[in-house]
Design a protein that fits this description.
InterPro entries: ADH-like_C (IPR013149), ADH-like_N (IPR013154), ER (IPR020843), GroES-like_sf (IPR011032), NAD(P)-bd_dom_sf (IPR036291), QOR-like (IPR047618). This protein is an alpha/beta fold and 324 residues long. The protein is 30% helix and 27% strand. The chain binds NADPH dihydro-nicotinamide-adenine-dinucleotide phosphate (NDP).
């Protein structure tokens, strides 16, 4: 038996219940892990509210770290006692869980379990955004929304390490300071300032070649106005709500723009891609050029409080749910 958070009906944070449930033994290709730390991500909110529907009941959570405690048949290269970490599939808010062995990676010794749980999903997302969806060039200026968030702080640091100048939007002075300390050259308080005007001002009217927009509803259309002609809009999340449908002709009107809507899981579906992306992340963290800022910790059983903080924009950087 284990303890896990389970959702029986989609809805508010109160729908997450801490329950005792069976884990079972690993099937072919699977292992059982005893988790030591679990990552909190905005996708957990989309799962909980039903925006991304799940079969009920379900255990949210797509990121964690821990120790293998039982290995199923047909698993090569892992044994009980190995340290592992993962991003996806769902089922992470649990003390123990089953997981396909080919979704696991082994973090380097210098990276703690809490850091691994805080960074696997957000960090590989940043690798996808800066190195795979599009190659970031030294000397260019880019726009990052929610720059002091979990993805945001990693994105600012990694982009700066690649030689880009980062303009980042944030909602408070405290977040602006944090973003600045993490590679964001020009924080914009988008709750006070018109971010389109400010981006135009900072780029001598030219606009930026790429916008990374995870805020969605509140920023999506205005982000187009920050782009230079033939620029790329990377819409990769919707923290403020779902994006309304729009006519593709708008992309022509705004200057022959490109739009992509990537999700990490399609970029790490192949085991070789997962390994490549995890290695890129581990390397940049080990080099010290990207630091993983765990802004807050909550006990796993209190995941509802973590969701309330995330949805109220009260979190900074990454959040870890501690186990045990
Ligand atoms: P964050 O830590 O970035 O938290 C969300 C932030 O969004 C808030 O702190 C807030 O920053 C900003 N925000 C703006 N408007 C709202 C609103 N109405 N409600 C809540 N937050 C708002 O979360 P994560 O780092 O976990 O994720 C960031 C985004 O990236 C999410 O949209 C997530 O879905 C997406 N994502 C996408 C992936 C993919 O594969 N496509 C993978 C991983 C993440 P501020 O107060 O400064 O405005």
């Amino acid at each position: 038996m284990t303890h896990a958070i389970r959702v029986h009906q989609p809805g508010g944070p109160g729908q997450m219940r801490w329950e005792e449930c069976a884990v079972g033994d690993p099937g072919p290709g699977e292992v059982r892990i005893r988790q030591t730390a679990v990552g909190l991500n905005f996708i957990d909110v989309y799962h909980r509210t039903g925006l991304y529907p799940q079969p009920l009941p379900f255990t949210p959570g797509v990121e964690g770290a821990g120790i293998v405690d039982l290995v199923g048949p047909d698993v090569a290269g892992l044994e009980a006692g190995d340290r592992v970490a993962y991003a996806g599939p769902i089922g992470g808010y649990a003390e123990s869980r089953l997981i396909a062995a080919d979704r696991l990676v082994v973090p380097p010794a210098e990276i703690t379990d809490q850091q691994a749980a805080a960074m696997m999903l957000q960090g590989m997302t940043v690798d996808m955004l800066l190195n795979r969806v599009r190659t970031t060039k030294a000397g260019e200026t880019i726009l990052v929304h929610a720059a002091a968030g979990g993805v945001g702080l990693i994105l600012c640091q990694w982009a700066a390490a690649l030689g880009a100048t980062v303009i980042g939007t944030v909602s408070t002075e405290e977040k602006a300071e944090l973003a600045r300390a993490n590679g964001c050259r020009h924080p914009i308080l988008y709750t006070n300032e018109d971010f389109v005007e400010r981006v135009r001002e900072l780029t001598d009217g030219k606009g930026v070649p790429v916008v990374y927009d995870s805020v969605g509803k509140d920023t999506f259309l205005r982000s187009f106005d920050c782009l230079s002609p033939r620029g790329l809009m990377v819409s990769f999340g919707q923290s403020s709500g779902a994006i309304e449908p729009f006519a593709p002709g708008l992309l022509a009107q705004k200057g022959s723009l490109f739009l992509t809507r990537p999700t990490l899981f399609t970029y790490i579906e192949e085991r070789s891609e997962l390994q490549h992306s995890a290695r890129a992340l581990f390397d940049i963290v080990r080099s010290g050029r990207v630091k993983i800022d765990i802004g807050q910790r909550f006990a796993l059983a209190c995941a509802a409080d973590a969701h309330r903080a995330l949805e109220a924009r009260r979190t900074i950087g990454s959040t870890v749910l501690t186990v045990g």
